[in-house]
Amino acid sequence: MLNLPNFLTLIRILTIPFFLVFLAYHRYWEALILFIFGGVTDFLDGLAARLMHQQTALGAYLDPVADKLLVITSFVMLGLIDGIPMWLAVVVVSRDILILLGFAVVYLLVEERLEVKPSFIGKCSTMLQLLTLGVALALLHNPTILHPLLTNILIGVTATATVASGLQYLYRGLMWLQNRAGSITGIG
User: Fold this and answer.
1) Global pTM?
2) With pLDDT > 90 as the criterion, what percentage of the chain qualifies?
3) Are residues 73 and 16 in contact, defined by beta-carbon separation less than 8 angstroms?
């Protein structure tokens, strides 16, 4: 059954192609509005799920998928149209791909679902990524709203937090695997 929180998440996913088309056709204001709409629906679906006691297994999987789809497609597209440096898009997307591949490897080796709790630096990284995307979209619409030095500082801090959180997830994953080495090798 599709409840309100999951419906809001699906709406967020369905807006992504429109967002990308707006970017491709240089309709930056419209793209920024859809990006903000995506953020609002993300907030509202979580709020509705908690207040209405409608947390579901589907929502637990769908919400982070919607978030990652929006972030990854945004970074790729903005990198392609020079809205952000391409190297930053590569850093963000590579981190997410490496984390996803790490989970897949762990699942195949241990056949156990790895519970992932976002770390503080992971949450900061996500917040900085979203802020960077919003600023990049705003700058595409109006290039004079922020001094280039501030933009470069934001990009540097976002890249640093992204790399740091990726290294932290890698460390946590390796420690988790080490603790379960017996179940992987059959020893223990």
Assistant:
1) 0.84
2) 51
3) yes
